[in-house]
Amino acid sequence: MAAHVLSCCLLPGAAPSSGAKAAAAASSSSPPTLLKPTKSRGIGRRDFVLRSSELAAIFHFSGTTPSYLGVQTNPPSLALCPATNNCVSTSEEISDSNHYAPPWNYNPKDGRRGKPIGKEEAMEELTEVITKTKPDNFTPRIVEKTDNYVRVEYESPIFGFVDDVEFWFPPGNKPIVQYRSASRSGFVDFNANKKRVKELRLALEKKGWASESNF
C-alpha cells in the first residue's frame, strides 16, 4: 500500500528513491495492523439539520410555475384550487371548508383605521407585510407586481419547495383583496397555506385591515 502511495507522488518517469523502496519493503514484510472497531454514533438533531441542508443544495424541489396563475376570465377571479388539500382561495365556494378563504377588507367599517385609504396605499401596506413576514420560515420573493395584482413565491428553508401566493384588487369601489395560496407539489400541506394566510392577515390587521371571518 505504501508503495502505491509513494509512487503516486512522483513525477512521471522518475524512479522511487532508496528511502521510498525501504519503506515499501518494510511495509510489505510487516504484519497488517488491525483497526479496533469503533462504536457508531447515532445521528443527532444537528447532524440531521446539516445533512438535510446538504441534500437541499443537491435536490432543489422548486417545481414548475403553473400556467394558470394570474387573473382568470369569465368571470374575473383568481384560479380555483385543485382537488388536493394544499391550497386555499377566495374564489372557492364558502361551503368548501378545505379550500375556501375569506377575502380581506382594507377599509372595514369596524376597523382600527381612522381614515379610509386608497388602493395604491393599500397595495403599499400589503407589499410591506409580504416582504417582512416569513410564515414557517418560508422566504417570500415578489416575482410579479402591477397596480392591482401581486404574485409571490414562498420558498421553504429545506429542499426549496415553492408555494405560489397571489393577491388581487378587483375593479370597483369595494376595498377588497382576493388571494390564493397553493403548494406546487404534494397532496397535503399540513395547513401550511392556511397558516401563512392567517399570519399575513394578523399583520395586516395591525394596519387596520380585517377579514370577513377568521380561520
List the helices and strands and how they pair.
Blueprint: H1 2-7, H2 18-29, H3 45-58, E1 87-89, E2 104-105, H4 119-132, E3 139-145, E4 149-155, E5 162-168, E6 176-183, H5 192-205, E7 210-211
Antiparallel strand pairs: 1-6, 2-6, 2-7, 3-4, 4-5, 5-6
Keywords:
DUF1499, TATA-Binding Protein, 215 residues, 28% helix, 17% strand, alpha+beta, 5 helices, disordered N terminus, globular
What's a concise summary of this model?
By secondary structure, the chain is of the alpha+beta class. The chain has five helices and seven strands, in the order H-H-H-E-E-H-E-E-E-E-H-E.
Instruction: Return the CATH topology of the domain at 66-211.
Output: TATA-Binding Protein
- Report the total helices: 5
Give the CATH H-level superfamily of the domain at 66-211.
Answer: Kinase associated domain 1, KA1
How much helix, percentage-wise, in residues? 25-40%
Helix and strand sequence: HHHEEHEEEEHE
InterPro entries: DUF1499
Pfam family, one: DUF1499
Polypeptide structure, described:
There is one protein chain. With 215 residues, this protein is α+β, with helices and mostly antiparallel strands. 28% of the residues lie in helices and 17% in strands. The chain contains five helices and seven strands; from the N terminus they run αααββαββββαβ. It has helices spanning 2-7, 18-29, 45-58, 119-132, 192-205, and strands at 87-89, 104-105, 139-145, 149-155, 162-168, 176-183, 210-211. It is globular, with a radius of gyration of 29 Å.
